[in-house]
Each structure stands twice: as structure tokens, then as C-alpha cells.
């Protein structure tokens, strides 16, 4: 009989090696070997950390099995096929009234709005409930925020107060950490220090709990542990069938199911993304120096990972779980093509690079949790409504910047606009796809951000020096720093504005003209031409919002209802599409005024060449 042996190989230069000969006891027989691959360092570390149950939303899972599942999805996205997979048909348009359908006997309760996806969807659900609408939330998991904090600025959180979702006391209760100053660092070049940018660590567990309690108190209904099966859109209502057998009826359905929403997959016909942001990181205990944060830190050189060349960027924030706890993220931008790196490959690099970045040793740290995520981006974002009575919201709509990972910041920025618009669409019964698309309009400032993602993506075939991206970012940031807070602050919060962009490009051209031809080569002529069109539209929207809006706005209330709705959405598109909704807060404006007067300066940046 065959002798079964399990061998532990040795690894030399990345190659598994086994003993050359083994002699079994007794007579020689045929020997078969079953070799077990040595677990990766990432697997050993992750399987040694206790993790709690998974929750919905990006970054809500921490286990090794969850990492492998996400890597399998990433492999599908990065396959050679232009279509990742044939999407399931979730939404169907059905002619006629729901009252004439098979569902007529179940029409006991019709919601005004049902939100599918609760982690971020609970915010829009609560905002709409506060306006007196009947709202339900469907969440496939327990409706609970993740353990890992969201990093955000106080100015962005105050947007939730203005909408009525939170109070300022709620913000204080949910804020787990606060820290200043905040660094924009460029390895080998220098640092720029700012105040009040992503300087709060907010507990999603506490924040979602507060908002959910408010939602419940307003009469909202939550369906936890339910998943979307299919949606039938009739002339007068949408019928939502849940996989668990329940049927719900609503005038409007909001899709807040994130980047991988099955409805979005159907709308995009399974098309692969135009770009990807890959993120890995940890929250560790044991940092002695832990009072400042990194908004962005750029590695000095690009690095080969597998068959790809990647440029690594970092973020680091004090964590609210303890004074020596710190979160560090490593992220990169890639084209979703065969050979793109896996998250596990990035983590293998992370174990080597993070100690150098933070000046620590993992031997002195306790790893509390490991964080990972993939964030697909599409050039044709935000996503217009493809069906009557269905609207994408949050990450599902693509409203977030293509250079950011996670959509909480963009949610706070747009929540007031969307709450008002959705309420007026329901009030006027403007629930056709054309009217709903006006809530997710073309925004040239968002589209122009694509150039930044392409410029920050390394190319293996290019002839650029390995430190080109680091040099380009440094030139961009030092120019914005010289131009002051009104230029730097919006950009650091993913808001692109025409005036600051023109000033920054002009200053780079004057001070570093030699870098311009390299930018053309890095991003490519087709991308630059496309970007230039968005740049022109950004200027056009700025002109319209600045000069035409004040003339039209006083007249709008006299317009017929449908025209009034359309003009309000048009004015919002100009304002938000030009980034003019962003204004310095009174404290930021005061700090800027002090720094503009050298005799009153209380804050400086590092001296840079």
C-alpha cells in the first residue's frame, strides 16, 4: 500500500523545496506525497487575531476568510474580460398599476421610501423620516456600524446637524478621538502641516446606533436580516421581494447597497471598473508617539508587486480605543487588468514597510484588527437613474471622489441636497428616471478628479524615474500650500474648484515647467483631452453658479411645480458641480486670516526647498 507522508517544505528564493529521498520502513513500495503549502505571513497573523461578527459596509469584515473572498472578487474584476460577470436581473419594469397585479391583496401598507442597505442608508432614511415620510430600511446583516473608526473633519459632521440627523451633543458622544496637527508628507521631500483635516475619529458603532435610535423614534421601520431578491416597478409603486419571502411596497426605492450593489451591476451590465483603489492596514496598540495624523504620505518610489508596478500611499490616525492605539492605511491605485496585485500581496508588503514608515517594530505592537477593502471607480459617475422609482445613493451612486476610499465624507456633503430633492420628487410625484437622474447629475469637479487618480497610478511600461509620482504630488501640494487655505483645504477634502485649480496649475507651470511634459506622458493624451473638457465645464459651471444663479433663484417659487423642481436641481448641479457648496467654516476663515498677517501668525509649515 502507498505510504502517505505530509511534508513541510523549506522555502528558498520563493521556491518550495522538499527532501530529495525518503526510505519507508520494510519493503520499498510506491510512495505518494501530499505537500501542504506553508501559510503566508498574512494568514498566520490574521488567524491569530480574534475577530467579532461581520457587519455591513466597506471595511466591516476582518477575518482571513473574508480577505480571500474579496481577493477572489478582485481577481474576477481584473480578468481579461471586459465584463466581470453576467449580472443577475434584479429590477424589472412592469406596465400597468400594482393594483391590477397579483400583489393587490398585500397592499396593506405602502412606504414612501424603502432604503436598501442600512450602514450608510440609515442616514438618508432618518433625514427623510424627519420630514414626515414613511420610511423603511432593509439590511441583510444586523444594522450596526463597524469597529474601525471613520476619519472625518468636524465641518463635515456638522452637515448632519444641519439636516437634522444629529445634534452637536451626538457628535461629541460619537467622537472617539481628536487630534492635530495633520501632515501631508512626501518621503525625501518634506512635510506640510494643516489643522482640522480628517482630525476626528468617529465610532461607526456609536454613530449608527444614535442615528438608528432617532430613526426608530421618528416611526421608521427596520428589516434586519433581509436581502433583496428582486424589484418590480409598476406605474404607481415599486414591489420589493426579499429573499426571505417578505414583500414590501414603496413609492420610491433608494439603493444604498454600496459599490457592489446588484442593482448597479445590472445597470452597468457587469462592466469592469475604470480604476480601483486597493486599501490594507491595521489598528495596533503600542505607539508611544501618537498625537498627530497623516492625511497623506507618499512613498519615495514605485514598487513592483507581482506583475504590476504600484505607488504606495499612507494614512495614519490615532485611534479612539486607547492613547497608544493607532490606525495605519496603505493604499494604491491600479487599472483593473490581469496581473494586478491582490490584497494579500499588499499586506505582505505592509508588514515590511509599515515599521519603516512609522518608526516602530511589530514586535512592540499588538495588532487589534486588520483592515482591507477594494473601491471600484467609474468615469461616468455619478450614476443616473436607470429605472423609474429607483435611485442610487452613497457609494452605489459613485458620488464619492475617485481618489478617496469610503463614501462617508461625500455622504455628509450631499445629504442635505439629496434629502430636499427626494422629498420634493415625492411631493410632486416626479419619480420617473429622468426626474430622479437630476438628483445624481453630471458634476465636472468630480469628473476632473479622474486626472488625479491616473497621475497617482504607476505604469510598468513607462520610462519615468521611480520617484516621479512622489515628485509630482510634492510639486502640487507645495504650490497649494503657498496659495493658502482657500486652495489647500477644499482639495484635501476631495472638493475641486475652478479658481484654486487654475492657480495651482499656473504656479506649477511657472515654478516647475520641466514637469509638465512628464505629466502628459504619465496620464496619456486621450485622458488629458477628456479631462480638459471637464475642466472647461468646471469653469462654465462656476460662471453659471456665480452669476446666473442669483438672477434665477428669486424667480423659482413662481414657476409651475415641475419646472420649479427641475430648476432647483439645475442650480444645485451648478453649485455642487463647481465645488462652490464648500465654504470655509468661521473658525477656518479666522485661522486663515491670522496666517495671512505675519505679525499674528500662530501656525507654520515645515521649511521646504
UniProtKB/TrEMBL annotation:
* Superkingdom of origin organism: Eukaryota
Listed name of the protein: Lycopene beta-cyclase
Composition-biased stretches (Basic and acidic residues) = 589-600
| SUPFAM superfamilies the UniProt entry points to | FAD/NAD(P)-binding domain (SSF51905)
Q: Where is this region: Disordered?
A: 589-609
Amino acid at each position: 500500500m502507498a505510504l502517505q507522508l505530509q511534508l513541510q517544505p523549506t522555502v528558498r528564493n520563493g521556491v518550495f523545496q522538499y527532501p530529495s529521498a525518503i526510505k519507508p520502513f520494510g519493503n520499498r513500495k510506491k510512495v505518494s506525497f501530499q505537500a501542504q503549502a506553508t501559510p503566508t505571513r498574512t494568514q498566520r497573523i490574521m488567524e491569530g487575531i480574534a475577530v467579532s461578527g461581520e457587519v455591513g459596509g466597506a471595511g466591516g469584515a476582518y477575518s482571513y476568510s473574508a480577505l480571500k473572498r474579496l481577493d477572489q472578487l478582485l481577481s474576477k474584476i481584473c480578468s481579461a474580460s471586459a465584463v466581470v460577470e453576467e449580472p443577475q436581473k434584479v429590477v424589472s419594469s412592469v406596465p400597468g398599476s400594482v393594483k391590477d397585479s397579483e400583489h393587490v391583496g398585500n397592499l396593506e401598507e405602502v412606504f414612501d421610501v424603502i432604503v436598501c442597505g442600512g450602514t450608510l442608508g440609515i442616514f438618508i432614511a432618518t433625514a427623510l423620516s424627519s420630514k414626515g415620510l414613511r420610511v423603511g430600511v432593509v439590511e441583510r446583516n444586523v444594522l450596526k456600524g463597524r469597529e474601525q473608526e471613520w476619519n472625518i473633519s468636524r465641518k463635515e459632521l456638522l452637515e448632519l446637524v444641519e439636516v437634522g440627523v444629529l445634534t452637536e451633543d451626538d457628535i461629541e458622544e460619537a467622537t472617539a478621538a481628536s487630534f492635530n496637527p495633520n501632515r501631508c508628507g512626501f518621503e525625501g521631500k518634506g512635510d506640510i502641516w494643516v489643522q482640522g483635516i480628517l482630525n476626528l475619529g468617529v465610532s461607526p458603532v456609536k454613530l449608527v446606533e444614535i442615528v438608528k435610535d432617532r430613526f426608530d423614534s421618528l416611526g421608521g421601520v427596520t428589516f434586519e436580516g433581509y436581502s433583496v431578491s428582486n424589484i418590480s416597478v409598476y406605474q404607481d409603486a415599486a414591489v420589493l421581494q426579499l429573499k426571505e419571502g417578505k414583500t414590501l411596497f414603496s413609492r420610491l426605492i433608494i439603493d444604498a447597497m454600496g459599490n457592489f450593489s446588484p442593482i448597479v451591476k445590472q445597470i452597468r451590465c457587469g462592466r469592469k471598473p475604470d480604476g480601483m483603489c486597493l486599501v490594507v492596514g491595521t489598528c495596533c496598540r503600542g505607539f508611544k508617539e501618537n498625537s498627530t495624523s497623516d492625511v497623506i504620505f507618499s512613498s519615495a518610489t514605485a514598487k513592483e508587486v507581482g506583475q504590476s508596478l504600484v505607488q504606495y500611499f499612507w494614512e495614519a490616525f490615532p485611534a479612539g480605543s486607547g492613547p497608544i492605539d493607532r490606525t495605519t492605511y496603505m493604499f494604491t491605485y491600479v487599472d483593473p487588468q490581469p496581473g494586478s496585485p491582490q490584497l494579500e500581496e499588499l499586506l505582505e508588503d505592509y508588514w515590511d514597510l509599515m515599521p519603516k514608515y512609522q518608526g516602530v517594530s511589530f514586535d512592540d505592537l499588538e495588532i487589534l484588527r486588520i483592515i482591507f477593502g477594494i473601491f471600484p471607480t467609474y468615469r461616468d459617475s455619478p450614476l443616473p437613474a436607470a429605472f423609474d422609482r429607483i435611485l442610487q445613493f452613497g457609494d452605489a451612486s459613485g458620488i464619492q471622489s475617485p481618489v478617496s476610499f469610503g463614501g462617508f465624507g461625500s455622504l455628509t456633503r450631499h445629504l442635505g441636497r439629496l434629502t430636499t430633492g427626494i422629498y420634493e420628487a415625492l411631493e410632486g410625484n416626479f419619480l420617473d428616471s429622468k426626474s430622479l437622474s437630476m438628483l445624481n447629475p453630471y458634476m465636472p469637479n468630480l469628473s476632473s478628479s479622474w486626472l488625479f487618480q491616473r497621475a497617482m497610478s504607476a505604469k510598468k511600461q513607462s520610462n519615468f524615474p521611480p520617484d516621479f509620482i512622489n515628485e509630482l504630488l510634492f510639486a502640487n501640494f507645495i504650490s497649494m500650500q503657498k496659495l493658502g487655505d482657500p486652495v489647500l483645504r477644499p482639495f484635501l477634502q476631495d472638493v475641486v474648484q475652478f479658481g484654486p485649480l487654475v492657480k495651482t496649475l499656473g504656479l506649477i507651470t511657472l515654478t516647475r515647467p520641466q514637469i509638465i511634459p512628464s505629466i502628459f506622458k504619465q496620464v496619456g493624451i486621450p485622458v488629458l483631452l477628456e479631462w480638459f473638457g471637464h475642466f472647461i465645464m468646471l469653469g462654465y459651471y462656476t460662471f453659471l453658479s456665480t452669476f446666473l444663479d442669483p438672477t434665477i433663484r428669486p424667480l423659482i417659487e413662481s414657476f409651475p411645480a415641475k419646472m420649479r423642481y427641475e430648476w432647483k436641481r439645475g442650480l444645485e448641479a451648478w453649485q455642487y458641480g463647481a465645488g462652490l457648496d464648500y465654504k470655509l467654516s468661521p473658525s477656518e476663515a479666522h485661522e486663515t486670516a491670522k496666517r495671512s498677517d505675519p505679525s499674528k501668525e500662530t501656525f507654520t509649515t515645515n521649511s521646504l526647498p
